[in-house]
Design a protein that fits this description.
The protein is mostly helical. It has 13 helices and no strands. 76% of the residues lie in helices and 0% in strands.
């Protein structure tokens, strides 16, 4: 019961924090159990764990702890496979890793996926403090490190034959489009997801104001190009996943893909 108690705690936190959008997400995670009990439970546990860690280090959640030492301690527990005896947020990671390992195939490593995702969240926390700017190459690598572990966890849970490396556009397109969607929030937090090359060409820097970003035509053109590239890749990705014949994988992935295609279209219309 410890796992589902922690899940319920996180579900309530999200619904209370961000209604009504998060209600549909939480409901969907619980509805998965109607399809397969274990799939729903591991989906909830994985998502709520990742969201808890991300919200804590982003400053979206007050937990009464110092964020970085807390995150590093949870990471240590996952890496060493030594967890506290009492239920905690780490209970969700422990359950998820054990369950996903039973659904894994050769070459999968759910524990490493969890560690890589925590490292990416910590990287965001640290770079935000200095408003660090990344190059185009570094930014693509960052997108991959951020989204591919989550996609792997999802696909392992679904018992899919696909993995993130088979559909790289899924990771990179999320990075590009979330950069556009979350620009205001990320920029204010110091998370700079516009490449150094683009900022320099536009005459901007990490300390430019949001108003300067919005009024800069070169930057706006770059956003539109990112949306066009992403939409083309996502349409191909949609077909690629459908052709696998994995109905549940397609249904769940396509829910996000459809949103991203619609979002990218709005950025260019």
């Amino acid at each position: 019961m410890g796992v589902e108690r922690e899940n319920a705690r996180e579900a309530f936190r999200l619904i209370r924090k961000e209604p009504p959008g998060q209600f549909g997400l939480v409901l969907g995670l619980y509805a998965l159990s109607c399809r397969e009990r274990e799939l729903g439970k591991v989906a909830r546990s994985s998502y709520f764990f990742m969201r808890h860690m991300d919200d804590l280090l982003d400053g979206d959640m007050k937990a009464g702890v110092s964020p970085l030492p807390y995150a590093l301690e949870v990471r240590r527990q996952i890496e060493t496979d030594v967890f506290p005896g009492t239920p905690s947020i780490a209970t969700l990671a422990d359950y998820s890793i054990r369950t996903l390992s039973l659904r894994s195939r050769e070459g999968d490593n759910p524990r490493e996926d969890f560690l890589t995702e925590i490292d990416s969240i910590v990287f965001d926390y640290e770079r935000s403090k200095e408003r660090r700017v990344l190059t185009e190459v570094e930014l693509d690598e960052y997108y991959w490190r951020t989204f591919s572990p989550v996609i792997n966890i999802l696909l392992i849970g679904l018992k899919s034959q696909l993995r993130a490396k088979d559909i790289p556009a899924f990771s990179i397109s999320q990075g590009r489009l979330y950069t556009i969607r979350d620009l205001d929030t990320d920029w204010q937090r110091g998370i700079i997801n516009i490449p150094q090359e683009v900022l320099s060409a536009a005459g901007l820097n990490a300390n430019s104001s949001l108003e300067q970003l919005r009024q800069n035509q070169l930057l706006q053109d770059w956003f539109r190009r990112q949306a066009v590239i992403s939409r083309e890749e996502l349409i191909h990705l949609q077909k690629q996943i459908k052709e696998t014949g994995e109905g549940l994988t397609f249904a769940i992935c396509n829910h996000l893909i459809r949103w991203m295609i619609d979002f990218s279209h709005k950025q260019t219309s």
